[in-house]
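Researcher: Please predict.
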Amino acid sequence: MIEHLIPVLVGTLGAATPLLFAGLGELVAERSGVINLGVEGMMLIGAIAGFACAVETGGGAGAGLIAGALAGMLAAALFGFLVLSLSANQSAAGLALTIFGIGLSAFIGQRYVSFSLPGLKPLAIPLLSGIPVIGPIFFKQDAIVYLSYFVFAASWWVLAKTRLGLLLRAVGESPEAAHAIGYPVVAIRYGAVLFGGAMAGIAGAYLSTVYTPLWVQNMSAGRGWIAVALVVFASWKPLRLLFGAYLFGGVTILQMHAQGLGISLPSQLMSALPYAATVIVLVLISRDRKLLQLNLPASLGKPFLPGR
């Protein structure tokens, strides 16, 4: 059994990596009081930008990830201008961004359907990769999985231990009070939104240049929506988001190893498992209103313009 379980857990980390990147970006944005439902669109924009850059420049996954991050930030900047500078409805603007990202990526991606990339080979960390069971799972991964470890740790530390994290949370709770003290609320929210866009762009570029190193239309396959749901699942806490990303990543990868594990279910049902799990988890969490109210940023989704 263990020889089947380890490959599943190894694959879980790869499947969870785009969810972790996108989820962390959305968590930071929502902690500042901005809900961006355009994560799916930003992931697709990052995916095609990263893949196109890797193909055209020959720079591989590294260049693709940088291009994906920049493209995601550009899309997030457009969203930020609408909701932060023009006070547009955040939910409507996010949905519009998703629709825009789906259409734009499909249009640009027509040229790259027949291309493929070499991807990235796993990097074994000396000593740590030799630890039984844990070593092959956590320390024989590609470089971007290791990057996700670092981004998670840095995000947790900034939110929990630094003045910047405290200020970000304060803006999410009461932008009026933060503005009255003299803090640039709109600028802080712009920074959080741009960070969310960069993380979503990296998540998309990881999919197209590393995880499945080729371009397929709508290749994010709803992962952006799962990332948004993960933020609620995590009650806006990074540690819970990490657990949720690996949980959903495990459900996703399970369908690929189901037969080897002796699970005989229709392939269509196995493919639907991640999305069914998302719905079930959200229903269960929504029943605990005290938990949601305790952790929900008080100004989430509410526009703020200085002087109004």
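Model: The domain at 17-123+141-295 is CATH 1.10.3470 (ABC transporter involved in vitamin B12 uptake, BtuC).
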